[in-house]
Specification:
about 200 residues, alpha/beta, Rossmann fold, globular
Length: about 200
Amino acid sequence: MRPDLDIVAGLVGSGQRVLDLGCGDGALLENLISEWDCRGLGVERELDDFHACIGRGVPVTQGDLEEELPRFGAGDFDVAVLSLTLQAVRRPDRVLTEMKRVAPRLVVSLPNFAHWKMRATLALRGRMPVTDALPYQWYDTPNIHLCTIRDFEQLTGELDLKIDRRILIDATGRRTGGLARRAPNLLAERVVYSLTA
């Protein structure tokens, strides 16, 4: 399991009903079910990842998370998770609104497009950056909404979501500290949030 998913699992906690949106191969949900005594459901669009979830024995539905979210009832889950996926959805604001409708707690992780390496590459080379945290070329990236830590935090305020915890992480998914805490928008490559409605 990716190191950042350990952080996500810790923020989810034990015994929760979890909706994992864009669950990938199901590694996080499998861990939450087996190690954290959670019950859950994943939503995954990609067929290979959907089949990987089934192979792991993880409950999953196949489809676009933006279309699947409205099908869940209000309060059906304790926690809704969106890990490194927000930047790839068509309407991040609607996704977050729907997440808070189906669960009182949200755990969201995202890349920070204002990290200094990205700024420097764009400024000095005049090219879209390719980094360890964002290893795609401009023409094959799934990322359609490039946001920064400041952008995301402004959006959470507009949507009446309270930030309970913010954990800064590097490209490998490990916690960062020191200077990154003083200037997170410039120095953190990724971030994980625990939010409440």
